[in-house]
Amino acid sequence: MNTISIRLPDDLLREVDCQAAELQIPRAEYLRRAVVSMNRKTRSYRQRIRLMEVSARVREESMAVNREFEEIEHDPET
Questions:
Q1: Is residue 1 assigned to a domain?
Q2: Which of left, alpha, beta for 24 (phi over 0: left; psi -120 to 50: alpha)?
Q3: Partner of 20 for a Cys bridge, out of 13, 30, 61, 62, CB 3.0 to 4.6 A?
Q4: Given this model, what pLDDT does residue 47 score?
Q5: How far is Cα 43 from Cα 16, in angstroms, rounded to an integer?
Q6: What's the CA angle centered on 13, arms 11 and 19, to 5 degrees?
């Protein structure tokens, strides 16, 4: 396991310590859990954005196909 050093504002560190104490876990464990949580949220957010982009592209293609079908229905000779 690697070690890192970070600087936190005093008020944020106090909050971390209070939350860790409330959960009865060490500060480092609290911070590890916070990082894991943020990583999950970030992955989920990025996946949601990607799905929205792909969905928009599929929607555009579907609309184009629908327009082609409409043209065929109105004028089967085309």
A1: no
A2: left
A3: 30
A4: 96
A5: 24
A6: 105
More confident residue, 2 or 71: 2
Q: What is the DSSP string of 15-41?
A: HHHHHHHHHT--HHHHHHHHHHHHHHH
For residues 31 and 66, give the distance between their C-alpha atoms in angstroms, rounded to a whole number: 52
Number of domains in the chain: 1
Structure token pair of residue 77: 């000779």
Q: pTM to 2 decimals?
A: 0.68
Helix axes of 27-74 and 10-23: crossing angle, nearest 10 degrees: 90
Using DSSP, state whether 78 is helix, strand or coil: coil
Length of the chain: 78
